Amino acid sequence: MSGKPFRVHFDSALRSDLLSRLAATRWTDAVTMGWDYGMNKCFLKALVQHWQSNYSFDTAEERINAMPQFRANVAGFGIHYLYVRGHGANPKPLLLMNGWPSSFVEYSRLAPRLADPAAYGGSVDDAFDVIMPALPGFGFSDRPTRPQQVNAEFLFHTLMTEHLGYSSYLASGTDIGAGIATRLALQYPGTVRGIHIASVVDPPITTASTPLTDAEKAYQSRCAQWEEEEGAYEHLHYTRPQTLAFALTDSPVGLASWIVEKFYFWSDHGDDLLSTFPFDMLIDNLMIYWATETIGSSMRLYYDHRHFRAPFKATDQVTVPTAITIWPKDLVLAPREWAERFYNVQQFSTQMRGGHFPAWEAPDAYAHDLCVFARPVYRS
Questions:
Q1: Domains (range + CATH), the chain
Q2: Cα–Cα distance list, 263 to 87, 150, 244, 248, 361 (Å)
């Protein structure tokens, strides 16, 4: 089985309605022109002005459709995915997964480097078939219509094995994608050859566990501080996502404020966000959420995870080879010994630059790190 080809299209009604809403924005006041209170009003106004006057929907469609896209019915649920076939005689299958508030737009720099490494100075022997599915409720995948309807790891595993015909594969991800990769490794260790992730799940700590090191205690303190200073969005998603969903689905400026603020605070851009994320890239990502009306369903994933997911057991252990890549401006950076409580860590690297969106921020480093990890996995 295989999916049906798919192309993103922003029709005239969508464009007209969006531009009308942008023009009718009612702006709130601000006591500072910086980022201290959250979204920077001057930056947001400039982004909206670009969206209204300089953003070409036709050109955006060309950018977004540059990589082959498909939709497949997986166990009765529609999954949208990009499928970039690798060059050479024996490309390795790679399941590549993003998180929130990202989309496949983030991977438009990384995927070509993985599929055709020789074009970027690498070896054709490192090529991957790159499969990038959208999470349930994200983008052009179906939206769940009831709690606990689907889980991503079952859908993605079925896509890779039954629909695309791979007997085994690697999985890589950031944010939510790293969590899905972890669960895939736990549930399908005979099929998942290895996982390459940018963040780790917290291991179940029991009274029988080895005492925490100083580095682990410091990490826990940093996590608590991050939750205090940055975790408001997460707490809302976990508890009352529907309340905010009505506002963000109705207002493109509200959507931009909620999402783009995260690109500022979670990335490695110095003091110039546009030097890393041009307006067109930020808006392309927003358009995925706006056109599909999936900001609400993307946030509900947090609620479902908190309320319906079974917690990890003390006996759970990721046995497949694991690579962990630390990006210096990511949210909270775990020490190796913390990761080793739960994962079979075969590679642990700290990069020179990059943050929470490394596929866009540092695609060369991401691709190199993944290739270095994959070589011994496929020799074993």
A1: 4-379 (3.40.50.1820)
A2: 32, 28, 19, 17, 11
